Amino acid sequence: xxxxxxxxxxxxxxxxxxxxxxxxxxxxxxxxxxxxxxxxxxxxxxxxxxxxxxxxxxxxxxxxxxxxxxxxxxxxxxxxxxxxxxxxxxxxxxxxxxxxxxxxxxxxxxxxxx
Length: 114
Ligand SMILES: [Zn+2]
Description:
Blueprint: E1 3-8, E2 21-25, E3 43-45, H1 60-65, E4 70-75, E5 78-83, E6 89-91, H2 94-104
Parallel strand pairs: 2-4
Antiparallel strand pairs: 1-2, 1-3, 4-5, 5-6
């Protein structure tokens, strides 16, 4: 499973968990996150300067050495740490889980993004 890099949209993030940047292990067909699983602030997936950047899961420890924390989704709304200085697990609220469930419902039209 590849690791994707995310950054908070806010230039001066207040998140003490991700400190504004975090990695997430995701299947390639998963929707990008639009919120930090730690703090809920808006985020976006980072596309590297050179090209679309995907690191293999084995690099989670390398990422940790650079101060990134990698989580992977254990189940809907729950994340477990792979490596890094962040918290061991993140559990979303019931509202979060419901929102995730809603996102999984098929969309009727193609999402062109914003
Ligand atoms: Zn955060």
